[in-house]
Structure formats: structure tokens, C-alpha cells
Write a structure and sequence with these properties.
Blueprint lengths: L16 H80 L3 H9 L6 H9 L21 H47 L5 H24 L4
């Protein structure tokens, strides 16, 4: 006996009722199998879509945090440059006025990141060498750890942003797959309401083709 909601074929004149019933039962079992598999895969796709959406949020939050760290590090770098320039300017004023004691006082208080660049700049003989850099700040030895940190944070933030985009793309692809599975469920459900054999068979075949295509698509998507 067919399940409730299934419209069995009406035997054509001269057609064996038992054969029609058997064919109807086979088609019914195929539809049940399609609906069962589709329901299971829909749950998997929905779960993955949610997981990837969560991954997207996590990467976006991490990117925002890293950009904030980069901004703070750049602020520290700017403050360090200001301090170094004031100290160097004070040294030049004292040295230019002939107050070597005061010049040494400022020089001894150069920050650790300025001192190597200053010594390298002095080695270029800036008073007599027209090709010498104008200040220690143009020397390659002048390296600020805070600025390097800012650049590193910026690079990490870009990487996190790229991961967020990939996660968003994956989540969207899973949502699209869920829509395909919904179409299969609709076709399978509607086929049980149609008595016309050709129409029902066509809907079942279409649902089966969509199931195969959607399953292949699901298998190729990244899993979170």
C-alpha cells in the first residue's frame, strides 16, 4: 500500500495493475531515498555555512585588532622620531655654539635607536662630505622597532582580511548549495502529488540530477 500523499499510477487499459503498482512503489522508494539523502546533506551544508560565517567574523575581528595595534605602534614610532629630532636638534645647537660639554650631554642621552644612526652619520664626515646625508634620520641604521611592529601588524591584518574574504566566499557557496538542496526537496515533495506518470518521472529525474550535481559541488567545497 502506497504511503499517504503518494498518488499511484492509474493503469492504462490493458496494462498489468501489478506491474504498475510495482513501478509506482519503486519510484516512491527512489523519492524517499532522494529526500532522505538531501535532508542529510542540507544539514551538513547548513552547518558548514554557519561555521564559515563564524570564521569570517573571527578573522574580521582579528584584522580590526591588528589594525588597532598597528595604529598604536605607528603612534609610538612618530613620538620616538619627534624625541630623536628634538635631541639631535639640541645637540646641533650646542655643538654649533661651541658648547661641547652641552653637546656631549645631549649626545649621551640619545635613544638607543638613534645612536647607531648618529655614529654612522658622523662617520660619513658630513661637515666635509657634500654627499653625506643631511641627518642621521636618513641613514639606514635608523631603525625603529615600533615602526617595524606597525608594518608587521599591518601585514598580519591584511592576511586576516584575506582569510575573512575566503571564509565569506565559502559560507556563501554553502548557502547556495542549501538553496539547491531546497529545490530538490521541493521537486521530491511535489512528485508525490502528481498522478501523471510522465510528469512525476520527469520531476524525480530532475531531482536526482540536481542531487548528484549538488553532492559533487558540496564535496569540492572547503570544510571548516
Amino acid at each position: 500500500m502506497a504511503e499517504e500523499g503518494w498518488e499511484p499510477d492509474i493503469p492504462e487499459p490493458g496494462e498489468d495493475p501489478a506491474r504498475v503498482k510495482r513501478r509506482d512503489r519503486i519510484l516512491e522508494l527512489i523519492v524517499v531515498a532522494i529526500l532522505s539523502v538531501t535532508s542529510l546533506l542540507t544539514a551538513v551544508a547548513s552547518f558548514e555555512a554557519t561555521r564559515w560565517a563564524g570564521e569570517q567574523t573571527d578573522h574580521q575581528n582579528e584584522a580590526a585588532r591588528l589594525r588597532l595595534d598597528a595604529s598604536r605602534a605607528e603612534t609610538d614610532a612618530s613620538a620616538s622620531v619627534t624625541i630623536d629630532m628634538l635631541a639631535f636638534s639640541s645637540f646641533l645647537d650646542a655643538y654649533g655654539s661651541g658648547n661641547t660639554e652641552l653637546a656631549d650631554f645631549y649626545r649621551q642621552r640619545f635613544r638607543d635607536e638613534l645612536l647607531p644612526a648618529f655614529n654612522a652619520w658622523i662617520a660619513t664626515d658630513p661637515r666635509n662630505n657634500p654627499d653625506a646625508p643631511n641627518s642621521p634620520f636618513e641613514m639606514p641604521e635608523y631603525q625603529l622597532a615600533s615602526r617595524a611592529n606597525a608594518e608587521a601588524f599591518d601585514q598580519q591584518a591584511e592576511q586576516e582580511a584575506e582569510l575573512a574574504i575566503k571564509a565569506a566566499t565559502a559560507s556563501e557557496q554553502y548557502v547556495q548549495t542549501v538553496v539547491l538542496f531546497a529545490m530538490i526537496l521541493f521537486l521530491g515533495g511535489m512528485s508525490s502529488r502528481i498522478a501523471l506518470d510522465e510528469a512525476r518521472l520527469g520531476m524525480v529525474c530532475l531531482a536526482l540530477l540536481l542531487l548528484v550535481a549538488s553532492t559533487v559541488r558540496l564535496a569540492t567545497l572547503p570544510f571548516a
